[in-house]
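Whiteboard transcription, Tuesday session. T.W. wrote the C-alpha cells on the left side:
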C-alpha cells in the first residue's frame, strides 16, 4: 500500500505545496485507488497535480466524518469530474464510502460546520456505500464503520450540535471512522480526526482485523488542548502499544506532539509525504 499526503496543516520543508487545516490522502493498494477525505477546499486537487497523481481514476472516496475540514473539498472534486465528462476525458465514477450519519447537519455556536452537500446531491455523482459495519475496500484495506467506544478517557466532550429528524443533540460524532490496513508485519491505521478516540480506533481495528501488532498510525489524533485525563490515558496506551512509528498530524497541538514523542516513535507529516507499506 502507498499513501500520499495531499492535505495537512503542514507541508514538507523545501517543497512547494499548499497546506490547510484539514486532511486528504490518496491511497493505492492492489489495483485500487482510494481518496480518503477531501480537506476544506480544492487545494488537495492542486497538490495532487503537483505530485502527478490522477484523481480521475479513484475507485473509492472515503469520508472519515462529516466536518467541513474533511468534506468541503467534495465540491471541487465534483466540478473536476463534471468537467471531465463534458470534455470526454477519461474518468471513473467512484463509490463514496462513509458512515450513514456523516451528512447530518452539524453546527457549533450556530455556525454550520458540516458537509455543505446533501446525501441526495452526492447520489447524483457517486455510487454510495453508507455503512456502520466494516467494509473491505481491498483484501487488506478496511473501512472500519462505527467505532466501539470502550475506554473512559476519550470522546467525553461533544463537538457542537447535530440536527436530525427535527431533533437537536450534543454531537459526539458517531460518524467518525477510520481505515485499517492489514500488512505483513501488522496494522497501519489511517484516521481523519479521531473524534471517536484514537485509542478506541486502534482497539477496534485490532478486533476487526484480528491482529494485535500495529506498525503505524497516521492521521489526526484529536489532541487539541486535551484534558489531563485524555492525554495521560493516550500516552499510557501508546507506551503499551509499541508501534514501530506513528505519524500524528492535523488536529494534534505541539504540546501533545512533544508528549507523544516520549511515548512512541513520532515522525513528521506534511503535504507531499509518501509512505509505503507491505
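and on the right, the sequence the group agreed on:
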Amino acid at each position: 500500500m502507498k499513501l500520499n499526503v495531499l492535505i495537512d496543516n503542514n507541508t514538507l520543508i523545501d517543497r512547494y505545496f499548499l497546506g490547510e487545516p484539514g486532511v486528504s490522502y490518496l491511497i493505492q493498494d492492489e489495483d485500487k485507488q482510494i481518496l480518503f477525505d477531501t480537506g476544506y477546499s480544492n487545494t488537495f486537487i492542486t497538490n495532487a497535480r503537483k505530485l502527478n497523481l490522477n484523481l480521475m481514476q479513484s475507485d473509492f472516496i472515503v469520508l472519515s466524518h462529516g466536518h467541513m475540514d474533511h468534506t468541503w473539498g467534495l465540491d471541487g472534486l465534483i466540478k473536476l469530474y463534471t468537467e471531465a465528462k463534458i470534455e470526454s476525458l477519461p474518468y471513473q465514477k467512484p463509490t463514496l464510502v462513509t458512515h450513514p450519519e456523516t451528512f447530518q447537519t452539524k453546527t457549533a455556536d450556530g455556525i454550520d460546520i458540516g458537509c455543505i452537500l446533501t446525501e441526495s446531491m452526492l447520489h447524483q455523482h457517486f455510487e454510495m456505500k453508507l455503512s456502520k459495519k466494516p467494509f473491505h475496500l481491498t483484501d487488506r484495506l478496511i473501512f472500519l464503520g462505527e467505532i466501539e467506544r470502550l475506554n473512559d478517557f476519550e470522546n467525553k466532550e461533544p463537538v457542537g450540535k447535530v440536527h436530525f429528524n427535527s431533533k437537536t443533540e450534543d454531537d459526539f460524532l458517531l460518524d467518525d471512522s477510520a481505515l485499517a490496513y492489514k500488512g505483513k508485519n501488522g496494522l497501519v491505521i489511517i484516521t481523519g480526526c479521531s473524534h471517536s478516540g484514537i485509542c478506541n480506533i486502534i482497539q477496534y481495528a485490532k478486533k476487526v482485523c484480528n491482529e494485535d501488532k500495529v506498525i503505524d498510525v497516521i492521521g489526526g489524533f484529536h489532541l487539541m488542548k486535551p484534558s489531563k485525563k485524555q492525554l495521560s490515558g493516550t500516552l499510557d496506551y501508546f507506551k503499551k502499544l509499541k508501534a514501530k512509528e506513528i505519524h500524528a498530524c492535523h488536529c494534534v497541538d505541539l504540546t501533545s506532539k512533544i508528549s507523544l514523542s516520549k511515548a512512541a516513535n513520532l515522525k513528521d507529516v506534511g503535504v507531499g509525504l509518501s509512505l509505503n507499506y507491505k
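Someone added at the bottom: The chain has one domain: 2-271.
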